[in-house]
Amino acid sequence: MRLRTIVPMAVGILAVGLAGAGLRADPVEDKLVIDGEVELVTRAKAPEGHPFDEVVSGWHYRTDETRALQQDSFANPAMLYVERGAEIWKTVQGAAGKSCASCHGDAAESMKGVGAHYPKWNAAAGKPVNLELQVDACRKNNMQAEPYKFDHADQKALVTYIKHQSLGAPVAVDLTQGAMQSWWDKGKDLYYTRTGQLNLSCASCHEQNNGKYIRADHLSQGNVNGFPTYRLKDADVVSLHGRLRGCVRDTRATTPKAFSDDLIALEVYVTWRGTGLAVETPAVRH
Amino acid sequence: MRDTCKTALLGATLLLATTAGARATEPIGPSDVTFVETAVSAPLTGTPGNPAEGRKAFANVRMGNCLACHKNSEMSEQLFHGDVGTPLDGVAERWKPEELRAIVVNSKKVFGPETVMPGFYSLEAGVDVAEAFKGKTILTAQQVEDIVAYLTTLKN
Fold it and tell me: Quick one: chain B helix, strand, coil %, rounded to 5?
């Protein structure tokens, strides 16, 4: 555990150092192939109504070293979370005496492709749910177990594991179900709303300036197809809501609550912006 | 509010009335800065800007953090200069001091509302400003003067 985490971290620091050496404006031309076997779609024609012609995975904006880490599932430190997720999947928890596997069997079959369609309309909840909320719903209703505290290591591990079962599947949220379209609309509004003392919107950085450097950070389109993602800076897996909270907080705005209606709406919209990109979970980023 | 306005106005009048080098006047408040086209002629404080202090505030991530978006060759000892904004090399030859002041105070008055450059001495913020920053400007009036003084040294 120790060694596998520390080695990539050192590489990460090196990688950050290199990023500043030459200010490269464009995302790198390269192919994302996991373990020399599975090639993932990292560029896709944008869906209608998208501000770009092409959506590009954040992987292309990272250094050679960081991109390489993601291509080797032994070197990818987040694969430990996948392993931990697999353990939780078959562990009995809660008063009902059940594990996820009791009902869903082999995740490689039952969860294959599932994560690529989240967030998803949930009629009972009357709103879109993301994977974290769906897992919590199963824990509460089907296992009589407590929902996870936001960003509990087990929550991140289980969601990483489930999403990993969609590795390579194209991101596709279904906006025709329920009121998904109005959540998309709300998410879009939020995406273009300037927040905080610094007065910046998501679009200020990820739409107007992607491809540019903000200090040492090469700005990507801000796609979410790699979440939960291993972040070298944190030496840890970061959940999507963790990342969104960080991006909003950095504008010196009040940090929004995880799973709040605002962040779910933003998740619906931002996920749609990456339509057609392969799920990369767990991705590796700075 | 009315009181602060009055004090600030008084400060501005005093500033105008006294000769250069006058001290201890109240700084002009962020809502009372006068823009004439793309320039702010009156210094925000009675203390002339100090370029050495300005250089520090320019680089400091909790103050100007200007390197986040701007390349500045005069500061090559600092790693990682962003390129969201224009390189600031030779900027003193492109803008007059009163224009540089206007850009730092509220860049939107110079570049238009779409610019991503924050207004460093402006209360025109985005929504949901965090409690710690509510009603506050990013830089103090003196830091603006110091940074402007530093910018005027950036010649080719």
Answer: 40, 5, 55
Closest alpha carbon within chain A to B136: A197
- The pTM of this model reads 0.91
Which domains are seen in chain A, by residue range? 39-75+172-285 (1.10.760.10), 79-164 (1.10.760.10)
By the CB < 8 Å criterion, does B56 face chain A? Answer: no
Q: Which residues contact A57 (CB under 8 A, 6 or more apart)?
A: A32, A40, A42, A43, A220, A223, A225, A226, A274, A277, A278, A280
Scanning chain B, the segments in alpha helix (DSSP H) are 2-17, 51-59, 97-106, 108-111, 141-151
Q: Which residues of A touch B81 (CB under 8 A)?
A: 23, 213, 215
Q: State how far residue B142 is from chain A, nearest Cα, in angstroms.
A: 19
What's the whole-number mean pLDDT along residues B9-17? 42
A3/A183 Cα distance (integer angstroms): 43
Tokens coding B152: 């005027």
Read off the pLDDT of residues A29-41 as tens digits, 9 standing for 90 and up.
999 999 999 999 9
pLDDT digit string, tens, across residues A121-148: 999 999 999 999 999 999 999 999 999 9
d(Cα B23, Cα B146) in Å, to the nearest integer? 15
How far is it, in rounded angstroms, from Cα A106 to Cα B132?
A: 49
DSSP helix/strand/coil, A183: helix
Q: Taking the domains of chain B in order of start, what are their residue ranges?
A: 2-151
A247 a catalytic residue: yes
**What CATH class does B2-151 carry?**
mainly alpha
pLDDT greater than 80 at residue A10: no
All residues of chain B having their beta carbon less than 8 Å from the beta carbon of residue A205 are 116
Q: What is the DSSP letter of A60?
A: G
Alpha carbon distances (Å) from A111 to A75, A137, B17, B115: 24, 16, 76, 44
* End-to-end C-alpha distance for chain B, whole angstroms: 44
